[in-house]
Amino acid sequence: MADELKWNYSLNAGLLYGNKQPPASFAIPLNRRGVALDTVATPAVPFKGTSFMNKQGGETARAAYFSYLRRMVALVDLPQGLADESGDEASGAQPQELRMVGVVTQLNDPHSLDAASRNAPWEFYQITDASNEDQLSPIIEALSATRPDISAAVEGGDNSEYVAGRVSLFCGKVSHFTGMYPGAVVGIIGTPWRRDMDGRLTSVLVSSLIQPRRPIPKWLGASSLTTANTHTPSMPRVAARVMYVSGPFPRREVTRILQSVVDNAVQRQATLLVIGGPIHTSYDESELTVVMAQASTFADQIDQTIGSLEQHLGSLSQTNPQAKALRIVVVPSLDDVTQIPVLPQLQHAVDTPLIMGTNPCRIVHNGITIGILQHDTVSDMREHMIERMQGREEGSLQRVVETILGSRLYTPMFQVPNPIVDTKHLAALSIAPDSPVVAMASEEKVLISTNGDSIDNIAKETEQKKSHTSISTLEDIPHLIFLPSSKPQFAFAARSSSLNGNSKEEEDAGPLVVNPMVWNHRNKRQMHFMNVVEVTIPDSAHAAKFGLAHNESDVAVSIFSAFRQ
Fold first, then answer.
1. pLDDT of 297 strictly over 90
2. If we measure between CA atoms, which residue out of 232, 309, 304 comes closest to residue 263?
3. For the segment 81-128, what is each residue's pLDDT rounded down to a tens digit?
4. Could you list the residue ranges forming a coiled coil in this record (predicted)?
5. 330 pairs with which residues across the strands?
6. What is the tens place of the pLDDT at every residue in 192-213?
7. Bridge partner list, 283
8. Chain-centre distance of CA 220, in angstroms?
9. How confident is the model at residue 241 (pLDDT cuts 50, 70, 90)?
């Protein structure tokens, strides 16, 4: 199994948002009720989109991360009319209040028992020009310093020396905040506190934190319409029932358990079954003898499991007509021993009842977009995220999930580009300005620019940059998101508005987020219960237009335990 740190699996997280590739689509035809679903299954993402570090000829992880920072900076809405540090220095006046946008790279724990840790400043890098990569490069090095695999590359630097853009934030004045984690893009409002010997700003007393706008689903704008206007007598209601189950599964009973899951889905008249990994985990050192005795590889084991599911569903279809209306999507996770999440399987047979998805995966079922992420980002974010909330401990899990959705790329899962590859050797690899290679390149550039087609290319490039930097108010967010985690199970509609220190909390309902709690452990006897999620949607057209939380009585979510080990 390849080292996870060498794979940019996090770049696929953008599939939960945006329209890079159409997701697999399963629809019940209105004129052919009770028959198999119409299936449109295309590759979830091209191989070029799953590029490794500086490989495959596509956009590198460094460029992708810079693009992500530019997008998040544009989403920070700072109040107008406040003094800026750069403008006040130019005029020579002492700023009374300043506003800055940047990335928080280090945080303290506001609930720590140690006073020094509790009052330690945050490390913040200001971004004044998001298009300047030289200004964004120190952010990568600062965030990468906490990673054990590349910390040696940045340990040699002296943290006491001046670093352009780095500022210490003292947030004792901020009464309450939430959703802060290393790597978060945030706007600050405060007053200068300390400067170095050269007059450069080094510390700021923060009075308010401004977080990026929460994503607003496209279907949320239509939620103000009444339910009566959404149905007509000639439009029949199409019901959908989605079932979801997540691994890890016991290695010796994977086939039996998954076949039981399929039987249960057919019995419950489900139209879509999502099976999340890990399906086959790697062996421990104590099990090496078992590995040597087996004649099959890990890939063969997964192929056998998938083949048994297809055969079992085919036999059910001969005796039970309801089985013909069931579609199965298997989404492996990072813990699977094969790299299916990184190298997605191309879908050629679009009429098969079982397809393989990438991790993350987007599915459209009767117009309802479903997002699946087989990674415990809830636990990751809860470990990294800090907040200062008074009397609001009961909603901490919901705020964690809303922070994950607000990060757009599930930042704890996002691997920061490696500075050893991207920054450390840039000086050694650079070419001198008077080099003949540079002269040849400049001549070639002149020749190309004289070509008449170059004007069209420049126009196309300009349009691409505009579309890349433009921020839409409404975003393409799934109606239903499965976030399996080891945390307590939950199912709630995330709020679409941003919560910060100087804005009121709005209750606009966003996507429905469900966590089944992976393999519940009970009692001291270590009895395992696999949790199964069932989401019943009586009217798919209404839910696709206005969201699953528009009328909560119409959508039923149940999480039940079964298949005791």
1. no
2. 309
3. 544 555 444 445 555 688 999 999 998 876 677 777 777 899 999 999
4. none
5. 275, 356
6. 988 888 788 899 999 999 999 8
7. none
8. 20
9. very high
Any idea what DSSP says for residue 318?
Answer: H
Looking at CATH, the fold of the domain delimited by 76-211 is given as OB fold (Dihydrolipoamide Acetyltransferase, E2P) (2.40.50)
Average pLDDT for 229-247: 74
Distance CA 37, CA 26 (A): 6
Output the pLDDT for position 416: 66
* 433 CB-near residues (< 8 Å, 6+ apart): none
Closest CA to 393 of 172, 104, 111: 111
Backbone angles phi, psi at 411, to 5 degrees: -55, -40
Q: Which of 268, 254, 266 is nearest to 330 (CA)?
A: 254
Number of H helices, E strands in the chain: 15, 23
Q: Which of 220, 284, 273, 227 is nearest to 246 (CA)?
A: 273
Region class of 223: left (phi > 0), else alpha (psi between -120 and 50), else beta: alpha
So where are the chain's domains? 4-56+217-369+517-562, 76-211, 424-467
201: which 2 tokens? Answer: 């700003």
Residues facing residue 167 across a β-bridge: 124
How far is residue 134's CA from residue 422's CA, in Å, rounded to a whole number? 12
By residue count, the chain amounts to 565
Q: Are 48 and 27 in contact (CB under 8 A)?
A: no
Give the phi and the psi of residue 546 in degrees, each rounded to 5.
-120, 0
The position carrying tokens 């977080």 is 211
Average pLDDT across the chain, whole number: 71
Q: Is the pLDDT of residue 153 over 90?
A: no
* pLDDT of 484: 92
Q: Which residues pair with 513 in a beta bridge?
A: 481, 492
How distant, in Å, are the alpha carbons of 70, 156, 459 from that of 135? 12, 20, 27
Q: What is the pLDDT of residues 513-526, one digit of tens each?
A: 999 988 765 554 55
- Residue bearing the bigger pLDDT, 293 or 152: 293
Amino acid identity of residue 448, one-letter, is I
pLDDT tier at 272 (50, 70, 90 boundaries)? very high
Tokens 């928080």, residue located: 104
| Encoded amino acid at 357, one letter | G
- Report strand pairing: 177-180 vs 98-106: unpaired
